[in-house]
Structures are given as structure tokens and as C-alpha cells.
């Protein structure tokens, strides 16, 4: 059941890609993310402005990536709205920034670091809707797609679909590696 959902989600990503420009996978420096920050410290660097550009979106996703890799739950959780919804269907998931802070490790951190690597990021600035294809590692490795909705510069909704696999990325995607 998960494979058809991923195929459908990837198809939607291609629609977005045809309507918006492709994003580079270069990392956005934290100092550039801090420009225009309202009400957040430079440590979080997620809220850049109410209406995100494609570069802002990439910056937010890279901030989540670095927060998880560093074991910095606050850095990642602060990219989410106070009442954000975070799910991986069919699981109900988590609701709210503070619940996500705890889910990401809280003050104590996680016993094993979480790692996420973005392969493709696509963003529709008009709809404030983005997607990312990823490799995720925490106790096991998965490959998947996440769909994120933004409101006032923060993630209001995060829905991901993933498939466990021990294969390396190039073997997992096979000849359809782009």
C-alpha cells in the first residue's frame, strides 16, 4: 500500500516541478536564514518571512536536517507552527511544536541521532506547499517523500510516506536515479 502512495506523491512532485523552478540542493547558510527573522533567535533560523520563497523553503528544510543531525530538537521543532500537524500515515502522528520537540528528542536528546538527507526539494511559493524526497535513518533506514504546508513562514502540516530499505540510494532507485 505504501509503494503506490509514494508513486502518487512523486507524480505530484513532478507536477510541482513543471510549475515551479527546480531548487538547488546547496545548503543555505544559517546567517542568510536569519535575515528577516521575526521573534526567533539565530539558533532556530526558520521563520524568514510570512510568505516563503523557494530559497526560504530550502533553508527551512536544511535547518530541520541540521537540527536532527546535531541532536538539536529545539532547532528543528522551531520550524513548526505552534499547532502544527506531523504525520506518517496511517499513524496519527503528533500535534503541536512542543509535542514535536519531545518527539525529536527534547532536552535530553535521542539515544541515536536522526539523520535525513534531501535528494529533491520542490516548492510552490503561491500555495506555500513543498515536497521533498529523502533518505532517513533512525534505528532503521527508510526512503520517502514528505509534503509540507506553510503558514506565516512556519510548517503547519507535515505528512510523510516512507519505505524501509537497507539498500543504498542508487540501488534503491535503480536506473531511475536523477
- Structurally, the number of domains stands at 1
| Number of distinct helices | 6
Total strands: the figure is 6
Q: Which fold name fills CATH's third level, the topology?
A: Nuclear Transport Factor 2, Chain: A
Mean pLDDT: 81
CATH architecture: Roll
What is the spatial order of strands in the main beta sheet? 2-1-6-5-4-3
From N to C, what is the helix and strand string? HHHHEEHEEEEH
Structural class label: alpha+beta
Uncertain segments are: 4-44
Amino-to-carboxy terminus distance: 24 Å
Report the CATH C-level class: Alpha Beta
Radius of gyration, whole Å? 15 Å
Major beta sheet summary: 6 strands, mixed
Content of β-strand = 25-35%
Shape category: globular
Give the % helix.
Answer: 25-40%
Q: What does it look like?
A:
The chain has 178 residues and is α+β, with helices and mostly antiparallel strands. It has one domain: Roll (Nuclear Transport Factor 2, Chain: A), CATH 3.10.450.50. It is 31% helix and 30% strand. The protein contains 6 helices and 6 strands. It has a 6-stranded mixed β-sheet with strand order 2-1-6-5-4-3, with helices on both faces. Strand 5 and strand 6 form a beta hairpin. The chain starts with a helix and ends in a 5-residue tail after the last helix. The relative contact order is 0.18. About 23% of the residues have low confidence.
What is the fold's blueprint, element by element?
Elements: H1 2-19, H2 30-33, H3 54-70, H4 73-77, E1 80-87, E2 94-95, H5 97-103, E3 115-124, E4 129-138, E5 140-151, E6 154-164, H6 169-173
Parallel strand pairs: 1-6
Antiparallel strand pairs: 1-2, 3-4, 4-5, 5-6
Amino acid at each position: 500500500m505504501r509503494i503506490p502512495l509514494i508513486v502518487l506523491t512523486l507524480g505530484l512532485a513532478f507536477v510541482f516541478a513543471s510549475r515551479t523552478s527546480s531548487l538547488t540542493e546547496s545548503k543555505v547558510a544559517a546567517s542568510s536564514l536569519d535575515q528577516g527573522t521575526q521573534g526567533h533567535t539565530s539558533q532556530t533560523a526558520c521563520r524568514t518571512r510570512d510568505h516563503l520563497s523557494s530559497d526560504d523553503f530550502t533553508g527551512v528544510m536544511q535547518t530541520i536536517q541540521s537540527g536532527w543531525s546535531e541532536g538539536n530538537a529545539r532547532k528543528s521543532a522551531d520550524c513548526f507552527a505552534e499547532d502544527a500537524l506531523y504525520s506518517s500515515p496511517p499513524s496519527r502522528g503528533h500535534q503541536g511544536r512542543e509535542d514535536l520537540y519531545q518527539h525529536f528528542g527534547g532536552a535530553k536528546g535521542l539515544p541515536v541521532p536522526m539523520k535525513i538527507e534531501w535528494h529533491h526539494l520542490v516548492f510552490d511559493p503561491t500555495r506555500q506547499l513543498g515536497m521533498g524526497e529523502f533518505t532517513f535513518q533512525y534505528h532503521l533506514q527508510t526512503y520517502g517523500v514528505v509534503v509540507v504546508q506553510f503558514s506565516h513562514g512556519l510548517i503547519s502540516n507535515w505528512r510523510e510516506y516512507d519505505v524501509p530499505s537497507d539498500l543504498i540510494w542508487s540501488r534503491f532507485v535503480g536506473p531511475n536515479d536523477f
